[in-house]
Amino acid sequence: MGKTRGADAARRLVDKAIYPPSVARQQVPPEECEETQCSVGLGPDDKIIGRFVLWQDRYMVEFALMQFTRVGGRWVEVFRIDTEHDKIHKHQLRRGSPDTQGTVTDLVEIPPDEGWRVVDKGYTNALSIIQNEWRENFRRWRGDTQ
Amino acid sequence: MTHSDLTAETPARGDPAAATFAAGFEFMRRLREPQFREFLRRHGWEHGEHVVMAADDEPVIEVIFKVMINGTGGRVLVAIPDERQRLGFRLLSIEVSTTGRRAWALLRRAGKINVGPGATIGMLYDAFSKCGQYMPSEWTSPVTVRKEPEPA
Question: Do the interacting molecules here have an ipTM over 0.95?
Answer without folding.
Answer: no
